[in-house]
Every structure is written in structure tokens, then in C-alpha cells.
């Protein structure tokens, strides 16, 4: 008589012979596939077979057998799925020499999608290999290029570089390994053996769609990187104050960086994206009159022109029946005519945030936009599809606002003429510039707000509600 162990686990065979010698997994009973069947269904099939039971089996690997029925010594073994693969554009294109404490050694430069992640010594690769083998016991890792006790020639170093690149390509192709803490620390930890002073190349997208590369230290902050960019493109300081460095994030939205942030950290955190960079330069100016004073600067006007083209294409500037006219002038040689027309359209110069929830809407989301004329909320579905309802709040009726980082909410208090005052709460990850605002901060207005400008350091709702001279922080 055959002894069976029966399971009712979806996606795995339900019955198999008792463990002895070669492992077998029965797939069929009485010509009926029982893979994924319930315990009762298998028992019913056995009963209905009468005196004859037809059993079809296939052999499985030892690893699969241990997954289905762990032995006592592998009781703590956790099954890991290595089948999910993906192609990551990781490469080790070159290497360079460093000196530290009188020692001269080679580090290999690791890139992802064209951006530099880190530089690692061979022994760091070796430690990675050992740590991964401890973490993923059931995976067959490719060989790492062998050690060599003597000084390597340039030809040998290049062969080692190619071997390390192939190793990373194969290992990172397995999603569960690529996303493991061990691998992430190896690829993103800035506190490597060379320290945070080692130089890295940062690519920054300009408004005219050109990409400029600056060589910076890993621990360079936003201010230092931005000044390096404007120095590289030879932008005057009088113009540079109307632009700044942004992070390209979701939903066609760019987040203005804080001066104290480290762009290289953002750069490597976004290594899996297909774009060449997540950093860009954009206009940060909300006064139409002030913008007109920049018309004599060719570079500033070109940048403003291309940003306006981008905002028209996104639908943030509502061209409507003027779209054909704008398209006819969409050439850098006609940028002044294009901007003259664009400035007349609704939405010009406004910052439009990704859709989010709002306490004023029981169903659906809102799209918040902030511009020189005021604050606007447009209704949309939860998937971001726009709906016709729009509510506009001029700066004169907004009396106070507050930010609560705990609930990731921006709240503002407004009062229309002959109406009771009301609070509106918007839940968005872009509610504020960050921790420097404090966990909970409120601003009150002593006189109407004329125009928004920079209060804090990122394009957040709070960042654009600039207190006038009569505004004070409430206790």
C-alpha cells in the first residue's frame, strides 16, 4: 500500500509518496490533473477509482523536495523565489586609482543607467559575494574573478573589470537579490572605504533639454551642486537666483531641493529609472513683472521658453483654442512671441502638484496648483482623470495655514466675503519642505497676501504661501 502526504496548497502538487530515496511528486490521479486541487477532491478521486488507481509521477530536484517537505534540520529554511528576473542596466565601465594612508589601490566604478553609483575595491566585491552566499543559500552564484597576489597589469585589471561587471549583471538580474539589503548597501552606501570625498559625475537636465555634467564630491549639498552647474553653463548670478535645482519625481512633477540635501543620494536612489538623470534645473519665479525684466538675458529667456513649452504639453498651461497658434511659434528663434502669448493664458507660471485626497471631497481626489493669482483646487478621480469642478482661492481670502508632517497634510483657513471661515486639509507627500518646518507649524496673516514666493525650500504647498510683512508665526 502506498502512503500519501496530502496538501491543500494552491499551486503545488497535493499528494506525493512518503519520503524515501528519490523524490516523486504525483501530478495525476485517474487521468485527472490534481495540481492545485483540494484535499477533499483528491480523496474523492481515490475513492471513485475503485480497485485501480493510476498514478503519474515526475522527479523533482532536491531543492524542490525540501521546499515541499523540509527535513528536520531545515525546519527554519525559508523558500525564496529566484524566478523573477529583470534586466538592469548596470555596468562597470572603468576603474581608477586612489591613495589612502600611503596605500595606492584600484577602485572599480559602478554605473546604473549611465549614472555613477559608487566605486568599490575588489575586496569589497569579494565581501559582497560571501555575504550574498550566506543570505541566499539556495542560489547558485556565478564565479567572481579570482584573487591575484601580485600587482595586476592594465590588461589584467581590465579583465577583472569585465568579470566584475558580468557578475553584477547576472546577480542583479534576479530581483530578490538585487533588492536585498546586502546588495542595496553595496550599491548605495556613500560611506564606502574611499569616504564621501571621492568625486562623482552628476548629470543635470537643463530646461532647454541639454544635459550638463558636473564633477562633485559625494557629500556636496544642493547649493554646491547648483553653483557648479551655473558656473558650468556660465549663467550670471543675477539670473541664477530665479532658477534652482529640482528632483524629477512622479506625475510630471519636479520637487525643488532643499539647500542642505545631497543630490548624489537622490541620484543613486533613483538608479533604476530609465532616464539619464533625476536632477534638473527649472525656473523658480512667480512674479510676471519680474520675469519680464529677464527678457534681455538670452539664456534666461531660452530656459523660460522651454519650460513654458513643457507646461503647455503637460496641460498645465491651458492653451485651448490658442494651441495651434502656440505650436506655430514653438521655436527658440520665436521665443519672445511664444512667451508673450503664453503669459496671457490661464495656468502660466503656476506649480501643479500630483493629485491627492482632500477632506472637502468624500470621493475622488483634487489637483492643487499655486500661482501668482492664488490657490486652485481642481476635482479629479482617484486615478487622476480630471473633472470639471474647480475652486479658486485668491490670496486675499487665505487667512492662515499650517503644516502637519505627522498626517502629511497642508491645511489652510480661508474666508469669503459674507461667509463663515472654513478650513481645508490636503493630504499630500508634498505638503511641506521637510523636517526643518517642524512637526507642526502655523502661520497667520495680518494683511492680505499679494503674491506667493519662496517661503520654504521645496515646491510644496507650504513653500508657495509666502507670509507678507504682516504675517507672523502663531504661538
UniProtKB/TrEMBL annotation:
Keyword rRNA-binding among record annotations? no
Task: Establish whether keyword Oxidoreductase is in the entry.
Answer: no
Give the PX domain ranges.
Answer: 55-194
Q: Which domain of life is it from?
A: Eukaryota
What organism does the UniProt record list as the source?
Timema douglasi (Walking stick)
Where is this chain primarily localised? other
Q: Where in the cell is it found?
A: Early endosome; Endomembrane system
List the keywords (alphabetical). Answer: Endosome, Lipid-binding, Membrane
- Identify one Gene Ontology CC term for this UniProt entry: early endosome
UniProt membrane topology term = Peripheral membrane protein
Query: What InterPro entries would the database entry show?
Result: PDZ_sf, PX_dom, PX_dom_sf, RA_dom, SNX27_FERM-like_dom, SNX27_PX, SNX27_RA
* UniProt-recorded name of the protein: Sorting nexin-27
Location of the Ras-associating domain: 198-286
Q: Tell me, which GO biological process terms does this entry list?
A: endocytic recycling; intracellular protein transport; signal transduction
GO terms assigned for molecular function: phosphatidylinositol-3-phosphate binding
